[in-house]
Amino acid sequence: MRPEHWWYTAPLRIRSIFRRRRVESEMEEELRFHLEHRIEEGIANGLSPEDARRAALLAMGGLDQRKEEIRDARHVHWLTDFVDDLRYAVRSLRRTPGLTAFIVLTIALGVGMTATPLSMLDALIFRPYPVPRPGQVVTLVSTSRDNAFDSFSYREYRDIRDHARSYDGVVAHTALTTVAFSPRAAEIPRIRGALLVSGNFFRALEVEPRLGRGFRDDEDRVPGRDAVVVLGSDFWKSEFGGDRSVVGRTIRLNGRDFTVIGVAPDGFTSLYIFDRPDFYVPLAMAGSFTTNPKKSFFSDRDDRELTVRARLRRGTRLADARSELQSLARNFAREYSSTNRERGATVRTMLEMRTQPGDANWKFAVIFTTLAFVVLLVACTNAAGLLLARARARTREIAVRLAIGAGRFRLVRLLLTESLVLALLGGVCGVAIGYLGIAALQRFSIPAEIPVRIPFRMDERVLLASLGFSVLSALFCGLAPALQGTRVELVNGLKAGDVQEPGRRRLWGRNALVVAQVAMSLMLLAASFLMYRGFRHSLSEGLDFATNTKDHVLLARFDPRLAQYDPAKTQRFYRQLVERVREKPGIRTAALTQNPPLGLEGWDLVTFVPENFEMPRDRDVLSSRMDTIDEGYFETIGIPLVRGRGFRSSDDAGAPRVAIVNEHFAQHYWPGADAIGRRIRLGGPNGEPVEIVGVAQNIHYGDTFSGRTDFVYVPVAQHPVTRLVLMVRSEGDPLQLLEPVQEVVRSLDPNMPILRTMSYAELYRYSVVVGPGVAIKLVGTLGAVALVLAIAGLYGLVAYNVSRRTREIGIRMAIGARPRDVLRLVMGKGLTLVVIGTVFGLAMGFGVERLMNSMLFSAAGTDVTVYLVVVPAMLLVTMLAAYFPARRAARIPPTLALRYE
Amino acid sequence: MSRPADLVQGTLDLLLLKILALQPLHGWAISLRLRSLSSDVLQVSEGSLYPALHKLEQEGWIRSEWKQTENNRKAKFYSLTRLGRKQLEAETANWRRLSTAISQVVALSEA
């Protein structure tokens, strides 16, 4: 349609909708004007006034019909009809408040159960990057045999940036790193999170700072020269109270003065899901932030710390960008074979980045969402069953409407409007339920150094999706009853009302509903129980060490770089720290570790080649998780050594290199032999040889979902590290050690910040109790809701069937059936359905178990216990649901039943 | 349903547009004009007149206005819009083509 057309018609449509009464009365007036003239004409022609009036109306040919035609001409009939239907629906639903409330509640539960997982799914997978045109932003990754999502080194990034042609800007940033921040030089620093970014970061991502400016290219050119910083918006508000004069001010980061040049816009929280950086600093300042003292950030091609993002040039296909990057990677491998051999690169989309195979969070969200949708389905079948019953009870009303000329389509629309009203009411209540669920998730706190942003929220996307699903469920549960309810044989419908005998197909539909409900609820119950057992199982192994440790160990993290220590001074500090702490009364042992077990930071990996081990043909190094520890470690954390010895203070930089491995490692590489005295070469076939002096017990290292794994310990004296955790063990409450530890630190250096102190119990609680507990609770709620819905649905259907057959039952009893026979008659049918449903449910349960095992628990086989519990429970519950209405039927006195209508 | 069988489909629209192109009129006047102009050959039911008028209005081809008649009564007057004038031209051309074609066919069959 042309705009000119709309210019004339749009006001008319709007008028027809909103000034409906006025438009109607004008129509009446216009027709009356016509009729009056016609009557006058008739009288002038010699007719009597009555005859003239009759003739005038006759010429019109059915006044009311004409009016309808005129209304049709307005093209807004669908809407005004809808409003009428809505009014009618509300009125008729209010006549059966109990049933209405029940259906609304059912749908509310269904929709509410989906809102929480949808918010997780959205945050973890679908929510676009907070930048303009986010669809064009891709991530470039380095790939190796062990890691298909590896980062790039600074040198690699620069080569890619300078040579790739497929992008409008290639940016790089680090992961969120801790930084010691103080607003003024004199203040004790606090720990915040910073992101090191390339100079073109804001520009290429098209993120406009809300205050000041972003970085210039020349500020990211000379290492260490331009100490400038852009603040995160939230940090700016909380720390500086949104003061606009902050631009130009100087703050201290890691002991160095930085000039604030801008503030990032609201809502921009980097491209990571969980992070919210407080500072953005140019990569050229990496010297003040470096995390790997053994590597040189600006020159080592294998110091891979940078995530590289790029904006695809308009019109460039992803496949072309990929092949370009792959050929760049081949050049790297040729030119720098020592660092890039067997290393490729590829371009990943946002979706690929967020659904990495190694990440358990999104998998859980997917499984959780799937299960929630099954709950919604159960709720819908419930509502459908009830609406079906309702439509049948209204057979006569519908027959009357059809008899006086209502179209079937029009009636279906009316009935669908009713279910739409129900579903929207349910949807709104459901959103409220979902909101509570999400609020509970947001309270979940993670004991990390830098506060972790919980990204799950009820935003407009989740809201829209929830309401959308409630409309869909209206269609789903309303369509079948509406179609069936309007397929009425008029004569029978008018005559007999509700007692009409249903056809075979109708019964089939209702039976299918019961079977589906039982099957889906059984599957959900099995799934939640499986999830519970899965978590329990993966947590039952390797936690013996923690039962005692968790109540007696205090953790304190240090990073002497924050006090401008060089590597030598750092080592001296740690040595003195442990020595002096051990002398304090009340402290039994003390130790250093890079990362305590069950900690939140990922483990470092070590690459090695075991001696006298036949390497797989296609690779020349192996890798394992590792930790850097000192001689007090095993005693303090409580991990027993199975063979050999622990580290000694004599295992220092001048002594022969040593390492300790776990049992799994020893079995893995030297099965059936003694690992003590064997050697591994670190880094590669020509790396330094390290002798294995001890074998430690396998423990649960931290990742909830990981199975057993190789593990290597090396002594900190031979492998200096800057960031370490001091662990001190007491006889009593570990928090009482806080004061003595602080005293020691003050005596060594009053300017040394303690990054974070906590009892081991806090870590344990998060990793072992709270984290898995949330998952179990979420899925358990789903199972419980599904069970309740299934019980209610089954009860409703059986009860309805009984009430419909009351007269039949009466007749049976009048001619001699005993109550027991009636009971068997009514229940037998229900039980058959339940059994069929159970069979289907079992099949579905096995399928879900497969899925969960492959995605979450890396376990195999069938957990028979689960089904031994779930199936009988389900049978019992459903039998009860069928029993009560059946018993009621059996107790009806025949005389009453026969008179029942 | 709304159109008498003896009136070719769409012709009523053309007639109404043509009548209103001459001057704005109210419904009663249009019905009188229809009667006299077509000299009773074209039977237009009065009943179908108003739905047709409302349809044209909703299409944006004519617009309506409440005005005083000579007898000092309020009546709804219809007049042609710019869009309606275009539509009239198009339909007139269409009608010419159609009637020429038909009369040619009719002439053929008689020869």
Number of domains of chain B: 1
Name given to the CATH architecture of chain B: Orthogonal Bundle
Largest interface: A-B, 28 and 27 residues
* Largest sheet entry of chain A: 6 strands, mixed, barrel
Mean pLDDT of chain A: 84
The count of helical stretches of chain B stands at: 4
The low-confidence parts of chain A are none
Biggest β-sheet description of chain B: 3 strands, antiparallel
Query: What is the N-to-C order of secondary-structure elements of chain B (H for helix, E for strand)?
Result: HEHHEEH
Query: What structural class results from the helix and strand content of chain A?
Result: alpha+beta
Content of β-strand of chain B: 5-15%
What's the total helix number of chain A?
A: 28
Computed structural class of chain B: alpha+beta
Q: Kindly report the spatial arrangement of strands forming the biggest sheet of chain A.
A: 4-5-10-7-9-8
Descriptive account of the structure:
- The complex is a heterodimer of chains A (901) and B (111).
- Chain A is α+β, with helices and mostly antiparallel strands.
- Chain A is 54% helix and 15% strand.
- Chain A is built from 28 helices and 23 strands.
- Chain A has a six-stranded mixed beta barrel with strand order 4-5-10-7-9-8. A six-stranded mixed beta barrel of chain A has the order 15-16-21-18-20-19.
- In chain A, a hairpin with a 7-residue loop joins strand 4 (177-182) and strand 5 (190-197).
- In chain A, helix 18 (504-540) packs antiparallel against helix 27 (864-891).
- The longest helix of chain A has 45 residues, at 760-804.
- The mean pLDDT of chain A is 84.
- With 111 residues, chain B is an alpha+beta fold.
- Chain B contains four helices and three strands; from the N terminus they run H-E-H-H-E-E-H.
- In chain B, strands 1-3-2 form a three-stranded antiparallel sheet.
- The longest helix of chain B is centred in the last third of the chain and has 29 residues, at 82-110.
- The radius of gyration of chain B is 16 Å and the shape is globular.
